[in-house]
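User: I'll paste a sequence; please echo it back and then give the predicted structure.

Assistant: Echoing your sequence first, then the prediction.
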Amino acid sequence: MSGKIKVIRICSSIILLTCTLLYSTIHISAQTKSQNTTEKNLSDSKRIYLDATIDAARWIRSTATETSHGRAWPDDAIGAKAISTNLADGLAGKVIFFLEMHRATGDEKYLTDALAGADYLLATIPEALELNTSPPATSLYYGVGGVAFALHNVYKATGAEKYRAGALRCVELIHKHARKEGGGVAWTHYNDLLFGNAGTGLFLLFAHKEMNHAASRDLAIQAGRRLLDKAMKESGGLNWKFRDDRDFILPNFSHGAAGIGYFLATLFLETRQKEFLEGALSAASYLKAVARTEGGVFLVPYGWPNENWKGYYDIGWAHGPAGTARLFYRLWQITKDRSWMELVKACARGIKQSGLPETPKPGFGNDSFKLDRRFGSASAADFFLNLYAETRDREHLDFARQLVEDILKKATRDATGTRWIFPRYAFMEGANSPAAFTGYFYGAAGYGMLMLRFHSTDSDAKWRIRLPDDPF
C-alpha cells in the first residue's frame, strides 16, 4: 500500500512540476511579449522626435543657396533671404544644429553641411568690428562671440586646425576692441547678456576654459568690474539698465539683472573673486524684491516704465522664468543652498500656471503664446527637460512633452520637410509679414535642436553642445 502511495506522490509531483513549467513558459512568453510591446512603443515615441528633427533638417537643406563664399542657408526662406553669420538667426546656429544631427544620426551629409557653414563663417570674419551697430558686433548671440563658439565646436568635431584658427581670430577681435571704462572695460553701451557686455564677458569665459585662451579670463574680469561699477542699487539689490542711453528696465535674463547676475556668478566660478558672487547675490535679491510669489510661483515682471508692460509677465528664455531660473540654478551650483533650487522650482510653477500651451491666463497677455526659443514655449520645454535631468521628476518630462507636441502640431509639413511659419515680430524689418525662419532663435534649427534634445533625453544619450549661458 505504501508503494502505491509513493507512486501516486511521484506522479503528482511530476504533474505539478509539468504544470508549473507550463505556467512559467506561458507567463514568461506573455511577459516577454508585453515587454517587447512596451519597448516598441517607447522606441516609436523616441523615433517621432528624431524623425521630426530629420524633416526639419531636410527643409533647411532645401533652402540652400550658392554664394561667393560657398553654400549657405538664408535666415528666412520666405522674405529677403538675407544670410547672416550670427548664432541667433544665422549660420553659426545652423552649424551647431548640423553638428548635433551628425552626432545623433551618423549621417555624413550633416557634417558636410556643418563644414560648409563653417567655411562661410571663416570667409566672412571681418578685419575690424563696427561697435556702433545694433546689435553690437562683439556679442555672443549676434556677434563674433557666437561665430567663434560655432567654429570651435567644428574644430572639436573634426580636428581641422583652420577652424580653431578662425575661432581665435574672433577672440582676438573682441580683445582688440575692448575699451577702457572706469575700473574695467566695455565694448558698447549695452549692458545685457543678449546684445551687450555681459554676454561678451560670458563668451570670454568660454574662450578661457574651452579654448585655452588665458588672456580672456582677465578681460572677462575687467568686464565684470565695469558692470559692477554701472549697477544701480534698487529694491535691496543691484539692477542695471538694458542700455546706458535708455531709461527702461527689462529685468529678466536676456536684458537685465538675471542675465548680468548670471555672468557675474559664472565669473565667480572661474575666478573665486568674492566681489562677483556678491554682485550676483545682490542681483538675485533685487529680483526677489520685485517678483510675484503668491501661490508658490516666482515671476519677475516684463519691465518698466512702458505702460504696455504694466502687470505683464512672460514665460520664455528672454523675459520669463525659463531664463531667469538659470541665475538661481547657478547660485545653487555655487552655494549648494537648497533655497536657490526652490526658486528654480517656483519658476517652473510660474510657467505651469500661465496657461501654457493653451490660452494665456490674466497677466500673460491677450495673444497666443509664442513658440520660439527666445520668447516662447520651446525655451520653456528646454527648461523643463533640464529640470527633469536634475530631479528625475517625471512631471517635468511630461510637461516638456506636452509643449513639444504642441510645437509639432503647429508645424507646416510638405515634401520639402518641416518648418514653422509665423508673422515677423514688430521689432523686425517687414513686421507682421510671414516668415519661415531657418535659425536657432526663431526657426527650424532651434525647434530641431529641441526635438533632438527630447529624443536624447528619452534615450539617455548625452547632450553634447551647451551654449555658454546654459548652466544645466
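The first strand starts at residue 65 and ends at 67. Residues 325 and 344 are 5 Å apart (CA to CA).
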